[in-house]
UniProtKB/TrEMBL annotation:
One of its GO terms (molecular function) is nucleic acid binding. InterPro entries: RNase_H-like_dom_plant, RNase_H-like_EbsB-rel, RNaseH-like_sf, RNaseH_domain, RNaseH_sf, RVT-Znf. The keyword Nucleotidyltransferase applies. This is Putative ribonuclease H-like domain, reverse transcriptase zinc-binding domain-containing protein. It comes from the Eukaryota. It comes from Rosa chinensis (China rose). CDD domains: RNase_H_like. Residues 262-344 form the RNase H type-1 domain. Keywords: Nucleotidyltransferase, RNA-directed DNA polymerase, Transferase. Pfam families: RVT_3 (PF13456), zf-RVT (PF13966).
Length: 372
């Protein structure tokens, strides 16, 4: 586009309404970039430019936040390289395993499976153990490696297809058992991972019965047995849920002669939009004023909570109300207002001087308190 070489960010902002000039944004940037830029809230004042570290909630760089980003990048590299170390991406996988709602023996089995140390026929032969053959216990065709036994064996395909997960591991492009297993952990939900672990263990359990007891393989019965075994374990070993008890709170009228402004914000992450609402009541709870406004571009719940609080403040100022208090249910926003610390994040876009107190969402109302 001609004539944009010397364009500045300020040229994209309507100084009168302090809003982004959408026509220019749509002409200069892609639709995704437009949505991202338009979601950046603007101050109503011409404040000085400053550097913001967007990896930190407050927008301020610290050694701690820098180390966190470095560690996160290292995790991505470890995952891409398939490193079997204890750190990086593997730390997350081990946490998923050890916190799974399955019997301890299943967790130990999965640890051996991922480490590649299960005594499959191929592994035993590599350890110089003499065996009659190396063929798979189920199909009696290919060599019984971990990858073949749990993923590629055609005899076991019906177990995975007709099980609760409806998997077709044969078509998965992974060449190793560990890479397939970790891919499944990335795809499956927590509950699905529980059965995935149980299913792998059930296959191994059935394999051992066939080796030592010459049992016949019945895939549908194995599915039923694995599901029942998991359900029974989870029934008698429920996950501990810690729920913090909080005393119910009710909305209260403001002190005599003072107006109370309740503000709230909403955000839809799926479409990147939001909205705000403001309600004003007098000291006996009678409605005085109200407003609501949609935001076609937003980037977080806190962003909308901050916009709602600002709208409440501006309403009070424009109406000339001399004694008001504002309530919000956003504990993070209230803490930011009360802290007195510098906060350069995009979410807290105003620096008004006010004292704030937090009221729980259970009350149905909110709470920074600002007295003018």
């Amino acid at each position: 586009m001609e004539g944009t070489k010397d364009f500045m960010v300020a040229d994209l902002i309507d100084e009168g309404g302090r809003e982004w000039v959408m026509e220019l944004l749509e002409e200069l940037f892609t639709s995704h970039e437009v949505d991202t830029i338009a979601a950046i809230p603007l101050s109503l004042r011409n404040s000085d430019d400053r550097l913001v570290w967007h990896y930190d909630r407050k927008g301020i760089y610290s050694v701690k936040s820098g180390y966190y980003i470095f560690h996160k990048a290292q995790t991505v590299r470890d995952c891409a390289s398939g490193s079997m170390g204890e750190g990086g991406a593997w730390r997350r996988y081990w946490h998923m395993l050890w916190s799974a709602s399955v019997p301890p023996k299943v967790k130990l089995f999965m640890w051996k499976l991922i480490k590649g140390i299960l005594p499959t026929k191929c592994n035993l032969v590599q350890k110089k153990v003499s065996l009659p053959d190396e063929k798979c216990t189920f199909c009696m065709a290919a060599c019984e490696s971990g990858t073949h036994l749990f993923k590629d064996c055609p005899t076991l395909l019906c177990f995975w297809l007709y099980g609760p997960l409806h998997l077709n591991p044969v078509e998965h492009p992974a060449k190793t058992l560990s890479s397939w297993t970790l891919d499944m952990l990335d795809i499956l939900s927590v509950d699905q991972c529980d059965f995935f672990f149980m299913g792998l263990w059930a296959v191994w359990f059935e394999r051992n019965k066939m080796v030592w007891k010459n049992d016949a393989f019945q895939p549908l019965m194995l599915i039923e047995w694995a599901v029942r075994h998991l359900v029974e374990f989870q029934k008698y070993h429920p996950k501990a849920v810690r729920k913090k008890k909080q005393a119910p709170m009710k909305w209260q009228c403001s002190p005599r002669g003072r107006l109370k402004i309740n503000v709230d914000g909403a955000f839809r992450a799926d479409v990147g939009c939001g909205g705000i609402g403001v309600v004003v009541r007098d000291d006996v709870g009678m409605g005085i004023a109200a407003l609501a406004r949609p935001f076609l571009h937003a980037h977080s719940v806190l962003n909308m909570e901050a916009e709602a609080c600002r709208a409440g403040l501006l309403l009070g100022i424009h109406q000339g109300w001399s004694d008001i208090e504002i309530e919000s249910d956003s504990a993070i926003l209230v803490a930011a207002l009360n802290s007195g610390e510098k906060n350069f994040s995009q979410d807290v876009i105003y620096e008004d001087y006010c004292n704030s107190t937090y009221v729980a969402r259970d009350s149905g109302y909110m709470s920074p308190r600002c007295k003018f």
